[in-house]
Write a structure and sequence with these properties.
By secondary structure, the chain is an alpha+beta fold. The chain is built from three helices and five strands. It has two domains: 40 residues; 46 residues, IHF-like DNA-binding proteins (HU Protein, Chain A, Irregular). The strands form two sheets. The chain has a three-stranded antiparallel beta sheet with strand order 1-2-5. The chain has a two-stranded antiparallel sheet with strand order 3-4. Helix 1 packs across helix 2. The relative contact order is 0.12.
Length: 92
């Protein structure tokens, strides 16, 4: 499902216009992104949580030529589904 399909489905299920649904989705993703940027964890009940994790700097070795390369530290966001979502995904 892509963004436009999601907008269409949510629009039908909520009786909102597609424009209002698109604006709502854009606002929600912007709020989540801003919270993650600020280092906050975003928890959505019955869905899961988004959080930022810090990956430390590390050195790797190229197996072909033995050359060492430094991978800089970075922040990454992760998503962890909650148990209810896991059950839904694993139910046939």
């Amino acid at each position: 499902m892509n963004q436009q399909e999601l907008i269409r489905v949510v629009s039908r299920k909520t009786a909102l216009s597609q424009q209002a649904t698109e604006q709502l989705l854009q606002t929600a993703t912007a709020v989540i992104a801003q919270a993650l940027h600020e280092g906050q964890t975003v928890k959505l009940q019955h869905f899961g949580s988004f959080e930022v994790r810090q990956h430390t700097e590390r050195t790797i070795t190229n197996p072909r030529n033995g050359e060492k390369t430094v991978i800089p530290a970075k922040q990454v966001w992760t998503f962890k589904p909650n148990d209810r979502l896991k059950q839904t995904l694993n139910t046939k």
